[in-house]
Design brief:
Elements: H1 16-30, H2 43-63, H3 66-94, H4 98-103, E1 125-128, E2 135-138, E3 147-154, E4 164-166, E5 172-174, E6 182-191, E7 194-195, E8 202-205
Antiparallel strand pairs: 1-2, 2-5, 3-4, 3-6, 6-7, 6-8
Helix pairs in contact: 1-2, 2-3
């Protein structure tokens, strides 16, 4: 019997970061997509839910209080439900047509599809920037990656900075940093299937 292709509707097991990436991918892929002229729920409603969840996820990570974590979890549920409803709409329109399903940004049960998160980022390198207090960050690129996240901290500190985002593996500038202090940086890759492990840390004495 031939495989009946469909958009997958399971989001409950995704990590928070994976859910954000998946939702962003779906909204981006379905925006102005001629295959899906009247999404239900609307992409605007899904984006509002995604923005709310992303904001509360960031707050929970910064402060880590039980209240912030509870608010984050509460905002996740309506986002998951909206994505599930959107998947039913996509499946109803696509009727098992694989290329149409893939254009939606949803993961599918297509034969041969192997769900893999990115590999660990390798060859993270720090060097002096052109100005005092500036550091250049380079690392080995990966294929089929949506973006990279990186964080830095002074070696004497325990807390990492907020996550910064880049689409390039070369010539990323971190500034301003304190001169004559040692800093460390870590990087990870993000694709449509989730978030990779953090790289080994790279270190530099800021000049």
């Amino acid at each position: 019997m031939a495989t009946k292709f469909k958009a997958l509707i399971g989001f409950a097991r995704m990590k928070d970061d994976e859910l954000v990436v998946a939702a962003n991918t779906i909204v981006g892929a379905m925006t102005d997509n001629p295959h899906f002229p009247t999404p239900s729920p609307s992409l605007e409603d899904v984006q509002d839910l995604l923005d709310d969840f992303s904001t509360k996820l960031a707050a929970a990570r910064r402060r880590g209080s039980p209240e912030e974590t509870a608010l984050k979890n509460e905002s996740r549920e309506p986002l998951q439900l909206a994505l599930q409803k959107l998947a039913y709409y996509v499946n109803g329109i696509a009727q098992g047509h694989l290329s149409t399903l893939l254009s939606s940004g949803f993961q599918t049960n297509s034969a041969g599809t192997i769900v893999q998160v990115p590999l660990k980022v390798e060859r993270v390198r720090l060097s002096d920037g052109r100005q005092s207090g500036h550091v250049r960050l380079d690392f080995e690129s990966q294929r089929k990656v949506l973006m990279y996240e990186y964080q830095y901290r002074m070696e004497s500190e325990s807390e990492w900075s907020d996550r910064l985002v880049t689409s390039s593996s070369k010539a990323n500038i971190i500034a301003p940093l304190e001169v004559a202090q040692r800093y460390e940086v870590r990087v990870r890759a993000v694709n449509t299937h989730g978030v990779g492990d953090w790289s080994d840390t790279a270190r530099i004495l800021v000049r």
